[in-house]
Amino acid sequence: MESQVKIFSGTQSMYLSTSIAASYGQDLGKMTVSRFSDGEFQPSFEETVRGADVFIIQSTFPPSDNLFELLLMIDAAKRASAKQIIAVMPYFGFARQDRKDKPRVAIGAKLVANLLSSAGVTRIITMDLHADQIQGFFDFPVDHLYASSIFLPYIQSLNLPNLTIAAPDMGGSKRANAYAKYLNCDIVICYKQRKVANKIESMTLIGEVEGKDIVLVDDIVDTAGTLAKAADIMMERGASSVRAVCTHPILSGKAYETIEKSHIKELIVTDTIPLRKDIDSSKIKVLTVASLFADVFKRVHNFESISSYFIS
User: Which residues are catalytic?
Assistant: First the structure.
């Protein structure tokens, strides 16, 4: 007998999960989260999941309650005899801690992988990991989707006359090269140096941008300092316009203000992380990943290929 599909959502990803479930063609599963006065909480499934393929959707952006809520939901599904437990993490938090880049630091991404494994996950579905090698931290399937399948058609629809793809740093050169190759256009690279996190010490531009319509490509936009500085340098060098596409809009600190004051004409992001409701920016455009994830759910459940979403 074919197993049922049950889709559940963590508290902070409900806005996206509702759209994914609608695209899949069914309602979200019923669950509650009981909260104690000291801040402790306990998720509970309010319908049977026995023998079902359970998809639990939760991006693990700060605070860490989001990650722990996901872990508790996984444990609850395991103890309720779910057949498969698929953790759907559109944004995989702590991914920037993928290695020891200096002495006496944790490898946070590996720790998160261990926690998910111990909790009882049988599969991970995520999007645009900050470091591809994080897939190797798991001993079960990881479906690593790329937002390029959403961004590339949008970039093409802009019909920019002198399109050039740009990497905001050396680490993003592989991603930018894949975009440039697909779009058959030139590429430029920004070389930046930092002494501390979230603060750029210096930036150098490698490549010609005069008269070009630049599209910066990155996986995360956090403080937006890198994008803003890159856009300023490119406009000073004679670029016609600068846009940016970033999968995960963390947008911490003064990021919204930085974007508004910058030369960035448009920032295109996905809804893996919700934007702040108290700020409305005319420069930020959100493209949804709901239908993409819903289709992947169907393919995973039916044991079909999802390689078409692996355009890096």
Answer: 192
